[in-house]
Amino acid sequence: MINRNLECKNYNKNKTTNKSIMRKTTLILLLFLISTLTFGQTKTEDDLIKAVIENAYIGGIHNGGSIDEIRKGFHPTFKMLSLENNDISPLSLEDWIIRIENGRKQNAGNPTAKAECEYLSITTSGNAATVVLNLFKNKKKIFTDHMILYKFSEGWRIVSKAYYRVPR
């Protein structure tokens, strides 16, 4: 003989469990949606750092942007460190800008390939950040850059750069 009361109890238990699972799933999806919308409205430190690099370095230096945009993203005491003949050769921002302006004059009228970057890492610790990126022209990697930034009252600025030039 089959105990029909037991079957009904199990059926009702499964029905209650299914409702509970549906409520929990709906609540989790709702919370995820709200957090995604809220997260999407605020710029993260990584976003702010990327904006400085893309405006001042990629756009300003490599893609012919304004010198003012370069100066806005680089701190005046910036140094680019180059390894030459087993020695470090520092280059100031102002000396780099002179080289950029001279290069633009020499290549006036000659279109240059647009530079693009691929971020390998962005690490922040309070008001300090390091960024490692690959720089491409014509889809070919030409540099791996290691940049150091500090966050000043006016925002993130690049203070130093070391790099690896990919052999041609």
TrEMBL record:
Lineage of producing organism: Bacteria, Pseudomonadati, Bacteroidota, Flavobacteriia, Flavobacteriales
Pfam families, alphabetized: Lumazine_bd_2 (PF12893)
Alphabetized UniProt keyword annotations: Signal
Official protein name in the record: Nuclear transport factor 2 family protein
Key word Signal present: yes
SUPFAM superfamilies xrefs: NTF2-like
Signal sequence coordinates: 1-40
This protein's record includes keyword tRNA processing: no
